[in-house]
Design a protein that fits this description.
The protein is an alpha+beta fold. It has one domain: HIT family, subunit A. Helices cover about 25% and strands about 20% of the residues. It has helices at about 95-115, 150-165, 170-175, 220-240, 275-280, 290-300, and strands at about 5, 10, 45-50, 55-60, 75-80, 120-125, 140-145, 185, 190-195, 205-210, 245-250, 265-270. It has a ten-stranded antiparallel beta sheet. Strands 1-2 form a two-stranded antiparallel ribbon. The longest helix has 20 residues, at about 95-115. The protein binds zinc ion (2 copies). One zinc ion (ZN) binds near residues 171 and 172.
Length: about 300
């Protein structure tokens, strides 16, 4: 079970085994994610090969999981190694590489969702120390849980309430009225925008234009254009010198509940730490107005 206090709006998962995680930054020869170091990794669950017949993307069991299928909280915890090269940055992945990665993560999403006990799946990326990555070799994590985290459940309830009152999805209705000042770029399938309520400096959301509840519902074409856009945004961040540490979070509905939700991806550069005010109130102080961020990104992407 996820431990939660619904009155003080607190929840947590205690995972003391995570303390044993190795910290690997520069020493490529001991990195468990590098090609040739397979002895350091657990079970390989899914692999995509490159044209040279080497691995391109590899999804493995997390050796230091926050959950498992034998204890509480029930769940699965995977690591997605998204490149065989220790120093390759995701902004430099080719479009085909991005497509393979997003496709592999969707296949794994579907496998995990197939388990009748799994109610919620979180896909996320921590890149850099400030974003929480203990291994500098680029990777993602997929956590499938038998419980829904408290704040996600609250969002689903509010979504359902909005739908009942207005007869439409909350994000779909926001997209229809989105002011151009908040749009960084768009394609047939996605809008890259700064949210009106940006909690972090340079926060960007990628939102599918057609209503999708979760990652499993995206089409192959939407995954391809998503990869193209993620690469573009990460290159933009790099040019703004906001490309150090960052998190990418896939925001999905629960796997099999009746709640509606509109899938989106948030990208958050980790330029500062949470301080006392944020820790006390969960109200974030953002030093860059979302419209300023949009202007800066547009100027950068033009070059
Ligand atoms: Zn490595
Ligand atoms: Zn929608």
């Amino acid at each position: 079970m996820i431990q939660e206090d619904p009155y003080l709006l607190r929840n947590c998962i205690v995972a003391e085994n995570r303390k044993k995680r190795p910290i690997i930054r520069d020493v490529a020869d001991k990195c468990p994610f590098c090609e040739g170091n397979e002895k350091y990794i657990d079970q390989i669950k899914l692999e995509v090969s490159s044209e040279e017949n080497k691995f391109l993307v590899r999804i493995v069991n997390n050796k230091y999981p926050i959950c498992d299928t034998l204890s509480s909280p029930y769940g699965v915890h995977d690591v997605v190694i998204d490149t065989p090269r220790h120093l390759e940055h995701p902004k430099d992945f080719s479009i085909n590489h991005w497509e393979s990665l997003l496709g592999a993560m969707q296949r794994r999403w579907e496998e995990i969702a197939h388990d009748p006990k799994i109610k919620f799946i979180q896909i996320f990326k921590n890149y850099g120390k400030e974003a929480g990555a203990s291994i500098s070799h680029s990777h993602w994590q997929i956590i499938g849980l038998g419980d829904i985290p408290y704040h996600m459940n609250l969002q689903y309830e509010h979504y359902n309430a909005f739908y009942k009152e207005k007869g439409s999805c909350y994000l779909c209705s926001k997209l229809q009225k989105l002011e151009s000042d908040y749009i960084i770029t768009e394609c047939d399938d996605w809008i890259a925008a700064a949210p009106y309520i940006s909690e972090f400096a340079h926060e960007t959301w990628l939102v599918p234009k057609r209503h999708k509840k979760h990652y499993g519902e995206l089409t192959a074409e939407e995954l391809k254009s998503c990869g193209r856009l993620l690469k573009k945004i990460l290159r933009g961040y790099d040019a703004l010198e906001a490309g150090g540490a960052f998190n990418i979070c896939f925001m999905s509905s629960g796997v099999k509940d009746s709640f509606d939700y509109h899938f989106y991806i948030k990208i958050i550069p980790r330029l500062s730490n949470w301080a006392g005010f944020e820790l006390a109130t969960r109200c974030y102080i953002n030093t860059v107005h979302p419209k300023t961020h949009v202007q800066m990104m547009r100027n950068t992407l033009k070059k």
